Amino acid sequence: MTRYGQVLAVPGMASLLSVSLLARTAITADVMALTLYVVLGLGLTYAAAGGVAAALTAGVALGGPMLGRMIDSRGLRTVLLVTVVAQVVFWLSVPILPYGFLLVTSLVAGLLMVPAQAVTRQAIAATTTAEQRRAAFSLESVQGELSYIVGPAVVILCAATMSPGVVAWGVGAAIVAGGAGIVLLNPPVRAEDEADAGAAGRPPYRQWLGAGMIAALTMAFGTTTLLSGVDLAIVATLQGAGQVSWAAVVVVVFGVSSVVGGLTYGALTRPLPTWLLLGSLGLVTIFAGLAHDWRWLCVAVVGAGLLTGPTLATVADAVSRLAPAGVRGEATGLQSSAQSAGFALGSLLVGTAIDLSVPAGGFAAAGLAGLAAALTGYLLSGRSSARTAAPLGDLDRTGTSDPEPRGAGARPAT
Question: What integer is the mean pLDDT of 332-340?
Answer without folding.
Answer: 88
